[in-house]
Design a protein that fits this description.
286 residues, alpha+beta, Lipocalin, 8-stranded antiparallel β-barrel, 16% helix
Length: 286
């Protein structure tokens, strides 16, 4: 937001004030300051000049606006020097000035938020963790590293957000190398691990509150596609302290039955239900 220095006090440092002489409108406006009182006796050169220390028309005493504010408008590209001169030398109230400024700021903010933001997964910090009951004696756990994908966040209409993910099963690791090999043998995936992938594509996003949502989508695993619902929590969204780029982080959880994906060997002795926990760190796409 723009901040101004008014008669009541200072919210931003003022630029150095020049001597007590008027100057043409093409130059930058000086801030209103207390030393303007010293210039009351100075004669105004023309309608296109101002008294020392006063940034507005000498004919108006109730609408003194900071030159720093007007310079901020010019630097931001909101107005040209000539337009600033035209606006702040006409006789109308500060209320109408700030109504225009507020409208400009609101339109600008809306145009920023109206655009969905695309984030790309950082595979070095994105993974799937799964667990299942093993014969009633223990809980077995595995991880899948190197998850890639794209997240589109629509802050104005969160329900229009979407996510696509690719999960490389070559990144699958369990507690045992022997078990890793078994999973890709005839009893389960029956394929080369280097070629096996799972994918998820969202079909619906239902926001629960500011940082939670239910995301429904199609999970394709072992050649079978089933609908899965993810409970998603937004961990954080902001500037990444190490990269300086805008980033977003999410955790999600879901449950699936492995038998629905033709992976049900030894069920129910080895639990059919598998709990899945996903963590994603994503960076705003260039």
């Amino acid at each position: 937001m723009f901040r101004a220095h008014f008669n009541g006090g200072t919210t931003l440092p003022r630029p150095a004030t020049r001597g007590c002489t008027g100057f043409a409108f093409a130059e930058r406006m000086r801030p209103y300051s207390g030393h303007a009182r010293e210039c009351k006796g100075k004669r105004r050169k023309s309608l296109d000049s101002r008294r020392c220390g006063d940034t507005v028309s000498a004919l108006r005493r109730n609408t003194k606006m900071s030159g720093y504010l007007s310079e901020t408008f010019v630097d931001a590209g909101a107005f040209s020097d000539r337009t600033i001169h035209y606006l702040f030398n006409r006789e109308f109230s500060m209320k109408s000035i700030f109504a225009s400024v507020a409208a400009f700021t609101l339109v600008g903010a809306t145009s920023v938020w109206a655009e969905p933001v695309v984030y790309e997964f950082d595979p070095s910090h994105s993974q799937v963790v799964f667990e299942y009951n093993h014969l009633g004696f223990s809980t077995s756990t595995g991880i899948i590293n190197g998850v890639t994908g794209k997240l589109t966040l629509d802050a104005e209409n969160p329900a229009n957000s979407s996510v696509e993910a690719t999960i490389p099963l070559s990144g699958l690791r369990t507690v045992s190398e022997e078990l890793d090999q078994h999973l890709f043998g005839p009893d389960f995936f029956n394929t080369d691990a280097s070629d096996a992938v799972a994918t998820f594509t969202s079909t619906k996003v239902e926001p629960d509150d500011d940082d939670e949502a239910k995301v429904t989508g199609d999970l394709t695993l072992n050649g079978v596609t089933k609908q899965v619902v993810l409970d998603v929590d937004l961990n954080q969204r902001g500037v990444h302290p190490m990269t300086g780029k805008e980033a977003a982080g999410f955790d999600a959880e879901a449950k699936i039955k492995r038998s629905e994906f033709n992976l049900g060997k030894f069920a129910p002795a080895i639990a059919d239900e598998v709990e899945i926990n996903i963590t994603i760190e994503a960076v705003k796409a260039d």
